[in-house]
Fold each of these.
Amino acid sequence: MAVEWISRAEARRVTLAAQGFGKRPKDGEPGWRHVRQAIARMGLLQIDSVNVFLRSHYMPVYSRLGCYDRAMLDDKAFHPRRRRLFEYWAHEASLLPFEAQPLLRWRMAQAERGEGIYKGYRTFARERRDFVDAALQEITDKGPLTAREIENSGERRGPWWGRRDGKIALEYLFWCGRVTTATRRGFERVYDLTERVLPAEILARPTPAEGDAQRALVLIAAKAHGIATAADLRDYFRLPAKSSQSCVRDLVDSGDLLECRVEGWRQPGLRHNGARARRVTGAALLTPFDPLIWERSRAERLFGFRYRIEIYTPAAKRQYGYYVLPFLLDEGLVARVDLKADRQAGILQVFASHGEANIDKGRVAERLGEELVRLANWLGLDEVKIHRRGNLAAALASSSRG
């Protein structure tokens, strides 16, 4: 059978449709049904500690649905009775639907064996087992605790990111699935026994065989991508190379994945059998941790958009800025802005704005300006301040004055 050939433009449409872009609710503010469906399409929300603009897990839903109530997402992620999401290591630290928990138990079992986790955690758990067991018993007896509340938690020290002993012990237990996030205070995790946080119905579900679970995760990744390479699918849930290759072969054999060739891609493409190309219109700013762009080589293959996060780059060497959000307009990544939410002053600071080559600067600036105002309103900020840095700054400032 001939292998399907797909243009880069069609691959973009397949991807954007699979990710849920261009489907904002027409009537009223998005409710939990819309948010739940958006998360289900993506499979997860990546969590990150950087808060110069906004915690990263809030943005992907906004990028797809527009202005929704962030308190609602907090409820579904962290409220003891209303939660519908749980935290675990997926792509990175992530919020996931409850239904994904059984599919990640193989990773928890690996951690118990000292596999697939940071070396520092593995070494600490081996050398300080008594302390780890005591921390687990303390949470069992006392209920939810932060790492600082663990007895003899210790001072920040040592090679393991300068973390306290209590933090290392609890993070190891978190990897093992013995504890999970009960809630957060500010952004600090409050840990409790997993069986006291997750619904009994979820915990009672059978544990799939490791291969079956990983195959299911590859399929979730394939649905979220629409079209991808085998490396893209593996990266989505950070799966082992050998087993993910086996999963892809099985899914091709079953017809769930269809092999294809994509214009400009060196590696073979894999299209989910339910993925369809759909023309996408609209505008969206994307966090650096959005699943559309978190695999940087994929963003470059699909959109011709080279993107690197520069948080850890010395200021003098940054090309675009500290916390830069790409701007999606219809079916292209056309610009990027370096943003900071100055909450005390009530200002959305646009420190730099850069447009891609061969764009209509006037149109891009107008649509970007509208999106920045909408974003500022959603964040409860009163003003958008555009600084004169970047090749799009003058057009953006002029458009904003209009």
Amino acid sequence: MELSYVIEGENLYKKYRGFQLNVSKLQVPKGFATALIGENGAGKTTLLNILAGIRLDYKGKLRYFGQYSDKDREEDPRVKEDIGYTGPGDYYLPHWKIRQVEEISSLLFLGFSTEKFREWCVDLNITKDDKDREKKISTLSDGNRMKLMIAGVLARDTKLLLMDEPASPLDPLMRDRLCEMIRNYLCEKEGQRSVLFSTHNIADMENVTDYAIIMAGGRIAEAGFVEDLKEKYIYVKGEPEDVKKAEKVLYTMTTGKYGYEGICLSEKVDELAGCDIEAQTPSLSQISVAVMKHFSSQRG
């Protein structure tokens, strides 16, 4: 399959006190939902802020939609028209009312639909009537503030959504609904829309993830389509007497009185020949944790 990329990055670098984002190569495939996975402090928000143009004090090169640079993103209104962003914090000012969010969004973005925004606000239980549109952002719960941001981007005609931890403030039912909304967004213009969302807990979002980028320590530790990653890695359980042999093979491993379990590269599983093992296809969550642990151990 020949891929095209909605975002490409090269030598992206940003330094804070005690932390460095250092991404030599970034590729986000066009037409898919990509999960940016990593523990808190891995660099996910910094990277997304750079991609969204929230942070401009970085080094490196970026390319959007196969033709625009990050300079174009700042100077050509058409680029930002095609990009929607949701994230934590005060993206909407606390004293704004929901009505003002609608009014300001309609001024900022040509592709913003007031009708769709109002429909999404009702559908997501943010508002019930015109009276609710007078609510201030500061009075909304974290979950409703995130839902309001989601309503804002879904009311626009975009080609790319950048979503920083969209599931974190949502309840389990709404997380499931979020997955459905992401999938519907992609399907409406199949192959022409893309989503990049970050998460530190992939379990709730795995069913909508096509491609995964796993971050650790400010770097990309692993990346690939989920189905390919599940072929690259294998989950193994074994007996106590084989622990010493297994620890030389497994990527990461936990042990107990009943034996061991962990993740290893599929190409290495033959090195456990002669051991009594149970092999399973790992979840993306298991792969992500193993990759992050392995990366940390190598750096340590």
Amino acid sequence: METFTIGVLREEKSPPDKRVPLTPLTCSELKRKYPHLKILVQPSKIRCYSDDEYTAFGIDLQEDLSGCDVLMGVKEVPADQLIPGKKYFFFSHTIKKQAHNKKLMHALIEKKIQMVDYETLTDKNHNRIIGFGRYAGVVGAYNGILGYGLKYDLFRLKPANLCRDKAEMEEELKRARLPNIKIVLTGGGRVANGVIETLSALRIRKITPEEFLMGSYREPVYCQLNPRDYVERPNDHNFDLNDFYAHPEHFVSRFAPFTKTADLYISTHYWDPRAPKMFTREDMQARDFHISVIADVTCDIDGSVPSTIRSSTITQPFYGYNIVTEKEDLPFNKDTVCVMAVDNLPCELPRDASDDFGKDLSERVLPHVFGEDPDRLIERASICVEGKLTAGYEYLSDYAY
């Protein structure tokens, strides 16, 4: 069988991203499973796995990847570094016509690149099959707990990005001594499951939404809300999920009772701009608005959570939202809601996040790259090929050409 070569790109975007699409161990396992496979890794001083860790697993380092069949990175590749005619896998952040990546989109077309975006890799039911969502949830929940401890001077935890891995972060979490607070979580899927992992490590008990609103507890508790719990049609209590996805503008929020009961809110739900906000800035000014810390993992600026007025950073994860002035303020002041809105949370635990992502990539995607692709997985995920947008992405034409 002919040799097939994967090139692992060095991350060049600024600020630098330490994650990798394939860890040294995953590379080694892939080579064992596919004897015809060759993997070349561009040297890098910033990635979470060192060059020495790759070479220790028998993976070759090479600067020039122009001879590779497929090139894989994590974040956007600078337009001037794209090699014409190649097949690339990375998060391009172009499918929503992101203005800052218009130059990149033009280059992908001009250089006749086949762009396979991880975000567009879906199964037959249009569900995403790969991503870093789990670790966004894991770290987002940890940051929310950390922020609550700081706001009320209860405990201080080491930031997740200063922990070597998830195991160390969970050891650190054991130092958190939470009072009998109530935590409300919105959303499902990978991100919410990541949040639940962290809350489970703290042994926080899960209760139903009804119990959350009606009961009082001597221990910290949390509830998880799905769309039927936080939106409804006006004057109609028969909830239809497909109707909500198709016509979110026909719904109103029913989240208000939770704002009067919850102490910490963790947001992980997908939000369509046509859908109602969870609550308004006016709602936040009410005397009985009780939420004091918000961990907005979704990080939609001025989206479903109106206190998210900007994204925050790994080194400065918190800011305050002043409910009186409706402006940014100090994060731990009495009159401010503490907001955590880091938009690249998985980067705080890059080794674990990369390991998780690489396993999914090797098991769920690469077999379709190396061999037969009866489900047309790669074809459906390709935004452009040979200088043209593919059928599913022609809506990008005014952005791409």
Amino acid sequence: MSIFKKIITALRGGASEAGEAIVDANATRIFAQEIRDAENHLTKAKRDLTDIMAKQMQAQRELDRINNSITEHEGYATSALNQGNEALALEVAEKIASLEVELSEQKQSFDRYNDNATRLKELVKNTERQLADHQRQLSMVQTTESVQKATAAITDNFNNSNSKLLDAKQSLERIKAKQQNFDDRLKASEQLADENSDQSLKNKLAEAGIGEAQSNASSVLDRLKAKQS
């Protein structure tokens, strides 16, 4: 095989693989469309069956009419024979013979309609059963496909969970550090305000024993003792 032919063969193989990949990727959609196409064909087949059944009923009515006409003319022929009018009876018999030929032809038409209707009814029933089964299968396939997609999404999230949890933990630590920094700055601001106030100075003087004497039980007792002396 020449190089050119091998290249052509490779391209054809690649095109076939690509086509199969497209079919595989859209298998469920294709299956659903095929079911819809079959439903459309079934609807048309039912319309055709309805037409055949209508013609079958028409043929049956025609058979009944011819049979009734034959019975009627047989009565006429009998009456003519009873009257001894054989010529008239023969004429009626010719009419009966003509009706019997028409009856035979009509019976053949009726039988054809009847056979076709019976065959089509069976085909319609089988097709309806197959379609119902395919529709159940499609429902299961679609459900399975949805579950598989959900499972794949969960698996992807699980595989990435460690890095995502780490990112979340780092974000939480940054938030906590920011809040702690805010609290520390607030406390420092309050502390600075206290140090700059008169109350802070009084506290420092009191600690050093300078300024107004603090009244307490011991100092009161010492004062009373001094007065007694």
